[in-house]
Each structure stands twice: as structure tokens, then as C-alpha cells.
Amino acid sequence: MSPGPSTTRLLLRLGDFAPLSPDESRSLESAVGPARLYRPHEDLTREGEPAAHIGLIVSGFAYRCRVLPDGRRQIVTYLIPGDLCDARQLLLPAATHTVSALTAANVATFPRETLLSVIERHPRIGQALCWLALLEEQIAREWLVNVGQRTALERLAHLLCEIFTRMQAVALTDGGRCELPLTQVELADTLALSTVHVNRTLQELRRLGLVSLSSGLLEIHDFDALQSLAMFSPDYLHPGSQRVERRRRLVPG
Amino acid sequence: MSPGPSTTRLLLRLGDFAPLSPDESRSLESAVGPARLYRPHEDLTREGEPAAHIGLIVSGFAYRCRVLPDGRRQIVTYLIPGDLCDARQLLLPAATHTVSALTAANVATFPRETLLSVIERHPRIGQALCWLALLEEQIAREWLVNVGQRTALERLAHLLCEIFTRMQAVALTDGGRCELPLTQVELADTLALSTVHVNRTLQELRRLGLVSLSSGLLEIHDFDALQSLAMFSPDYLHPGSQRVERRRRLVPG
DNA sequence: GCCGGCAATTAACATGCGTTAATGGCCCTT
DNA sequence: AAGGGCCATTAACGCATGTTAATTGCCGGC
Fold first, then answer.
1. Which residue in A149, A162, A194, A235 has the most chain B C-beta atoms within 10 A of its own C-beta, making it the best mutation to test that interface?
2. Which of A38, B88, B148, B149 could staple A72 via S-S, CB 3.0–4.6 A?
């Protein structure tokens, strides 16, 4: 299915923080355990359960979701290939959220202890994983801004910009297209809208000629327009490096 | 003003993850640099600026805020005494958000390099700080759920529960009371409501006899009722230890 | 080739919350 | 004592989005 070793896309991501040495890359690769195939809607980790291993999405999609006692749902993250399922669990004894497969998903696993010892030998890997966690936090905050301040149209546009950009970072886009197997119910639970309004809003985006989304395929016809409609700035997806290098040049010359 | 060393409340917080040894505590205490007094609305850190030191709120309140190009504002965090201003900056070369003082605030500073070397000597401190960051992430996600899924009344009730609980953790409550110098405009930017509706909602909470909030003082008259109205569960404020132990009992017993 | 179920679509109607704007209280300044 | 600014409060009205519910299309199973 997926070409190359299962860590390919993770390494791609970590390189965004700091390129790993061949030695470090090899260590990480060799720490990866067996993969497992999940079916749609199957749980990868369940809230409160202790986790002996850290999942790595190799292919397919997953999401993290919070459910209120009366059934209201809020999806708080999407996980795409190259994402770790819950690096938090390296530090915490149990998972804090339930993560479920959105589609069929192939998930490799790092045994917790093995990964911990790799980190001990290669502190940069620990830092890189920590950086990944910070990135997730940035995304969570941006979602808060999205749901809190943007209109339905902007909100949807912003989500599509974000996901597309993340897919690009792991080389899963093809021109302006990428896979995006989200149902309108899931979009609604992500954007804090009703499904009816998601439908209206999607059609509006289509009518404007910006994007189309159907049968699991996202096509962006005019990214610039979409981005400016959404007030999307990709900065938060690259905390650190690029942003700073730009700035560094300002300081000593 | 504030009794004892400036790290008192931080240590109180970190102990929630893992009690630090006297040696570790002393190292951390000795790493703290000079304090600075900020005036209301003054910026502690500005987005994108490299930061040579990590702030620690000793007294007063601060907030992190994201502003959209057209002026819409979303407050994404409140910082209370004992909170680090941006531990992220240990890893990242620049701040990712602007943090501003809400009230007059006394902020101690850890020189970045000094703190890094303390962590090197005491890995547990690094872990504890990392745990603090995870906690912040948990809070961010909970705010997303709050703004996305709860009604105005529930939302406000939830925020008050959270802040009160956090204040309790650093021993800044007195019975059902604590300081909370939030204006209705700030509440609005936090909860993604209009100020008018915040006003209506606050009155409703008062009318129900649950809380009163005026001249910077929060009084909770019936925490249990408030908590159940808000569907507030303090679990997310204690990621890790306690949660798991409770669960463990359910399994074999 | 029919049936069942899920996802998308549409329409009609309802409402929680936003907007605008006016008023009053408080505190600080002069 | 008068003036100005910030904040809280209130009222009237409007709108973005929710709700309910019916319809359609699609796909897989039998």
C-alpha cells in the first residue's frame, strides 16, 4: 500500500523541526513495532486507558473527539499519515482522549519503553517529538479561534486550508487535490455547526468556485482566494524554524 | 506583597505531577532571576519576538490572545500566579502568541540558558515542565469544546469552574471566593459571545443563586450546582496520576 | 433487481445570540 | 462641582444558524 518504511512521513515531519542525522533516523526506524489495521470507527486508544505503545498513522485518517454527557460531540483533532497517535502517553500513564479511525487505517506502533530508550540515547529525537506536541497545541488554539470568531463560511474554508497544508507537508497532495474522507456530520462536529448548515456552506464554497468536496476527494480550485477568505496563515503550522530564521537575519546581520 | 519565594506557587503546581526533591526544588529556585512589575495591558511577550527568558507569574493575571486581521479577538488562555508565561520558548526560538497583563502583575524571569542547564542536571524538572505544557494543551482543547458545544450559560459557568479550580490549586481561594478581575468585554472575547449577552448570562447565573461576580471578586455560592450546569469535570486539569488510579479501581474490584 | 441504510440535499420555520444605541454608575481628573 | 472615560445595564430589533422533517441518490447485500 504505502511505499517505503512506515516512518517515512514521520521523519518528513520531524525534519521540519530539525533534520535528524542518519543515525538518529535509523534508531527511530528500528524502534517501530508491528503495524495494525483498523476498520472505520474503531478506537485506536480509549480515554483513561493506559497505553503500552504509541501509534503512528501510516495510512488513513483518525480523529480525537470529546463527547459531553448529553451526547454533544466535538472533534478536536484530525490525525493524518505521519501523525503520532498520542505522544503524550510517553509522559502520562494514560490516554486523555479517545482516538478513533475515520477510515480504514494502518497504524504502526512504537513500544513505549523502546521509544523512551531511543529518546534517552538521542535527546534531539525527544526534542523533536516535544516540538510535534507543541504543533498540535498550536492547532488546537487555532481551532478555538476558528470556532469562536469566524463565520461558518470562513470556518469551513479555514479547516480546508489547514488540512490541505498539512497533507502537503507529508506529500499527500496532487496539485490542488487531496484525499479527505469527511462526512458532513463529521464536519459539523468539527466546526460546531449543524449538518444542514455545513451543507449550505459547502455549496456556497462550490458556488464561489473555490473548492469542491465529494466522495472523499477535496479539490481546491483557488487556494489564494480560499486562504484570504479564511484569514488562514500557515505560520502556526511551522512554529519555530522558518519564522525564526526570517527574524534571525534581522538581528546581527 | 507575595509571601515567600517567587517560585512557591510554581512548585505547588509541579508537585501535582511529581513531588520534586529538596535538591531539585532548590535548583529551580536558584535559577529564578529578577522580577519585573507590569502595568495593566502591558505586553509580557510579543508574538514572533525571540525571548531570552521565561516569565513566571508571581502575582496578578495575564492572558494570551489571538487577533484576526479585521480586529476580532479571541482570548486563548488566562495565566494565573504560578503559571509559566511561555515554557514553549525553551524549545522554540520565538514566542508564538502575545501575552499581556490583565492587571498589574509581578513577573519573575528565568534566564533561558540557566533554566536549560537546570533541566539538563535534573531531567525530572524538564519532565515536569513538559507536563505543565500538556496541561495547557488540555485546557485549550476544553475551551474548544466549551465554545463549540456549550450554550452561553453553560459556557460561562464552565469558565468560572475552571478558573476557580485552578486558583484553588495555587491556594488563592478563600472559601467560595477568589479574585477575578475580568471585565465583561474580556469575558466576551474569551467565550465568543457579545458583551451584551455576557451581561445577560451573568445576571442569569446570579438570579439562579449560583455565583456573583463584581468588582473583581468571584463568589461561588453553589459549586456543585454550577459544576453540573456546566458539565464541568476537573479531570482535564489533572492529566495523569489521579485519573488513572480512580479508574484502576473499577477494573478488577 | 429489489431492499435497506447511510449521506447529501432541500424547505419551512424557530431561536439564541448579535447589533445598535441609549442610559446610568463609578472613579479619576481638573 | 463639573467633565470625561470606562464599564455595566437595558431595550428593540435583526440575522446567522439551528431544528425538524421530508426527499433523493448512492451503494452494498441478498
1. A149
2. B149
Task: Enter the pTM of the model.
Answer: 0.93
Residue B69: count other Cβ atoms within 10 Å of its Cβ: 8
Please, what sign has the CA dihedral across residues B127, B128, B134, B136? negative
What is the average pLDDT score of chain A?
91
| Closest CB to B92 among A93, A94, A134 | A134
Residue A187 · residue A134 · CB < 8 Å: no
**CB–CB contact A239 B92 (8 Å):** yes
pLDDT of residue A6: 84
Stretch B216-238: mean pLDDT: 96
A134 touches chain B (CB under 8 A): yes
Q: For residue A193, which of A162, A155, A227 has the smallest C-alpha distance? A: A155
Determine the Cα–Cα distance for residues B171 and B166; give it in Å rounded to an integer: 9
- Give CA–CA dist B101/B107, Å, rounded: 10
Protein-to-nucleotide distance from the CA of A195 to the C1' of C11, whole angstroms: 15
Among A131, A145, A192, select the one facing B91 at the smallest CB separation: A131
Do residues A54 and A109 lie in contact, with contact meaning Cβ atoms separated by under 8 Å? yes
The DSSP secondary structure of B129-175, one letter per residue, reads HHHHHHHHHHHHHHHHHHHHHS-HHHHHHHHHHHHHHHHHHTT-EET
DSSP class of residue A50? -
**Where on strand C do bases come within 7 A of a protein Cβ?**
6-12, 16-21
Q: Hey, which bits of A60-190 come out as E strands?
A: 62-67, 73-79, 98-101, 105-111, 173-174, 177-179
Gap from B222 CA to chain A (nearest CA, Å): 21
pLDDT tens, position by position, B35-75:
999 999 999 999 888 888 999 999 999 999 999 999 999 99
* A167 against A95, higher pLDDT: A167
Nearest CA in chain B to A66: B145
Question: Of B216, B187, B189, which Cα lies nearest the Cα of B199?
Answer: B187
Q: Show residues of chain B in contact with A143, CB under 8 Å.
A: 144
Q: Which residue has better confidence, B87 or B164?
A: B164
Cell of B15: 508537585
The span from the CA of A37 to the CA of B136, in Å, is 32
DSSP string, A210-228: SEEEETTEEEES-HHHHHH
Is the CB of A134 less than 8 angstroms away from the CB of B133?
yes
Question: How many of the other CB atoms lie within 10 Å of CB of B247?
Answer: 14
- Asked if strand D contacts B96 at the CB level, meaning under 7 A, the answer is no
pLDDT, tens only, A177-213: 999 999 999 999 999 999 999 999 999 999 999 999 9
Chain centroid, CA A136 distance in Å: 8
Going across the sheet that includes B35-38, the strands are B35-38, B105-111, B53-59
